[in-house]
Structure prediction request, 170 residues.
Amino acid sequence: MASDPTPVRVGVTGHINLTPDTELLVADALRAELRRVGDRPVRGVTCLAAGTDQVFARTVLELGGTYDVVLPARDYRTAVIAAAHRAAFDELLAGAGAVIHTGYDHSGTPAFLAANQELVRRVDRLLAVWDGVPGCHEASTDRTIDFARGLGVPVTVLWPAGARRTSADT
Prediction:
């Protein structure tokens, strides 16, 4: 029997401020989860934030998949992405199969919430890199997990042993 060539759409949500060692641990955990998809190609969906989102995009590419980007706001690159990380962001953005805009001009919680919800509506399953600590705003990782579960989107929470954040984020 032939395998189903239809891509499985996998989204990601998770922490931004991961230590360098944690980024490696997260990449390993994401790699293992994405391999569980089987012989179907992966179409990732990410907001391309620092940390989890960018590790996810690189891991999807490494495994031969493709990804789409949901940009929270028109000013996202300059308002949110640190100048030192813009070249990596630009490279990953240029590699996206599609770029979806939320319609917001300015970055902030409303734009991030809209992007997270748009991402969840586009996926078959969600991978969440989350340490279990509740967030402090509507666009936090735990709220995105709750939104996905509310829509019936299967969620896999990943927080590898030894993982750490450099500071609190959501």
User: Anything to note?
Assistant: The mean pLDDT is 94. The radius of gyration is 15 Å. The first strand starts at residue 8 and ends at 14.
